[in-house]
Write a structure and sequence with these properties.
Layout: E1 81-86, E2 97-104, E3 111-120, E4 124-129, E5 153-160, E6 163-176, E7 179-189, H1 199-202, E8 206-207, H2 211-214, E9 218-222, H3 231-235, E10 242-245, E11 250-252, E12 274-278, E13 290-296, E14 311-313, E15 321-325, E16 328-335, E17 342-343, E18 351-352, E19 355-356, E20 362-369, E21 375-382, H4 385-389, E22 400-401, E23 407-409, E24 418-422, E25 435-437
């Protein structure tokens, strides 16, 4: 998915019934260049956990016993395969890649598994609806700055291409496969522990505070960075990011990177340098459902080796690579499982609303390139959206829509491929992330 960003802020997808879902990349720097939002139309608008004692967040774990050589990866035997699927959703949204996530009160076995969480390689951190969490899972709040008047807690505004999420930042143990991300900052969306959204946040589009508007129970951001905002939010009180909240109001504030909403992979003890997503190929007419795997780590076990994959180092600040398509270069390009289509500019493809709808399926080609000069050619197809969306299928490799000035390789890109996303600063067999490989 794709949030507007400070350089690599999450570009988080917002899904629309039979319409577009954008996804994105997360920020981690003091720069404030906005990230593109995917071409998604506004979604149609269709018991929070009790507050608990504020807790201080701890810093993300460093990569396990890093070697001086950036291509030496600590080996692991921890179960690292998480099931993922694309299937019919309650909102009828196509190409929604989802999984289940287990949240626990830190340091305990008081846990709940939450289904229908979107998997998003274009953003960082876990965001879950408060309404999906049982009252017994009273996750500790992250405390606001000591200088705040009275007792304060931290809230976050996460702005996406088609709206925003708002809620408290809390601490949770996050369990995926056999992995544990201890005491990780997560966003609890529509959490009653904080006041209503700050004015600047509420003016950022559709409030994605319900399952119908969010198109699920949450978003699992497993993109190329460790935190969702990063250094920019640590040194400046950025609008529409982090806030100190008292009982009556919230004001923009700084927040240390260690306390920000964090990519859970960054906090795994092992297999913490990236993620591999594998989905089967689907026929041109689509498929009613597909099942795949999300494997944690790169080169840390026998099941997550790069093999013959082409590695495209991405920009260390923005997370972007470049795409050459139709004679034009798009420097703002990203590979994003949180976008439910391919989104790119075209002067030749016919549009039907937010989707392309050529009379016949078009086979196209593009070349992705990295700042280091590596390239990879990609052949892809664009089908007639009106025909695809009138079927009973939910997984499509040829669903695409228009965009302006950027190229979003959304979920259709993942079908029939092994797609790696490497985490910034973590050693892998191909050197440190961030990078994409496929």
């Amino acid at each position: 998915m794709t949030i507007r960003t400070l350089s690599h802020l999450p570009v988080t997808a917002v899904c629309v019934l039979l319409h577009a879902c954008g996804g994105g990349g997360s920020s981690n720097t003091a720069a404030s260049t906005p990230a593109p939002s995917a071409g998604s139309a506004p979604a149609q608008a269709s018991a929070p956990a009790a507050a608990s004692t504020p807790a201080a967040a701890s810093a993300p774990l460093a990569a396990s016993s890093p070697s001086a050589a950036s291509n030496v990866v600590v080996q692991s035997s921890t179960p690292n395969v998480q099931p993922i699927q694309v299937t019919r959703t309650a909102t009828g949204t196509r190409n929604m890649l989802q999984t289940s996530v287990t949240l626990c009160i830190p340091g305990t076995n008081t846990c709940q598994t939450i289904d229908n969480i979107q998997v998003d390689t274009g953003s960082q951190g876990l965001r879950v609806l408060a309404s999906a969490l049982a009252p017994s899972i009273a996750l500790p709040l992250v405390a606001g700055s000591a200088g705040s008047a009275g007792s304060s807690v931290v809230a976050e505004c996460a702005v996406f291409g088609s709206g925003y999420t708002w809620g408290a930042v809390r601490q949770a143990d996050v369990r995926l496969a056999g992995q544990l991300a201890s005491a990780t900052s997560v966003q609890l969306i529509a959490d009653s522990a904080v006041p209503a959204a700050a004015t600047d946040c509420s003016q950022s589009g559709l409030p994605m505070l319900t399952a119908s508007n969010l198109r699920g129970n949450g978003i699992l951001g497993v993109g190329p960075f460790t935190a969702d905002c990063g250094g920019g939010c640590a040194v400046s009180a950025m609008p529409r990011w982090y806030y100190n909240c008292t009982a009556g109001a919230c004001s923009a504030s700084t927040l240390a990177v260690a306390q920000q909403v964090t990519n859970p992979i960054a906090r795994f003890a092992t297999d913490n340098n990236g993620v591999l997503i594998e989905l089967p190929a689907v026929p041109p007419e689509g498929a009613s459902a597909v099942a795949g795997t999300m494997t944690f780590g790169i080169g840390s076990q026998a099941n997550n080796g790069l093999g013959s994959a082409t590695v495209l180092k991405s920009n260390s600040i923005t997370g972007y690579v470049s795409t050459n398509f139709g004679g034009s270069d798009y420097g703002s390009s990203f590979i994003d499982s949180g976008s439910n289509g391919l989104f790119f500019p075209s002067t030749t493809l016919t549009s039907c609303g937010v989707w392309y709808c050529p009379a016949t399926t078009q086979t196209l080609s593009a070349t992705l390139s990295s700042p280091t000069g590596a390239t990879a050619g990609v052949s892809f197809s664009v089908g007639k959206s009106t025909t695809l969306l009138s079927s009973g299928n939910y997984a499509f490799s040829n669903l695409a829509g228009p965009a302006s000035g950027f190229f979003d390789w959304g979920l259709p890109f993942f079908y029939g491929r092994r797609v790696f996303t490497a985490l910034e600063g973590r050693p892998t067999p191909a050197g440190d992330g961030p990078y994409y490989a496929f």
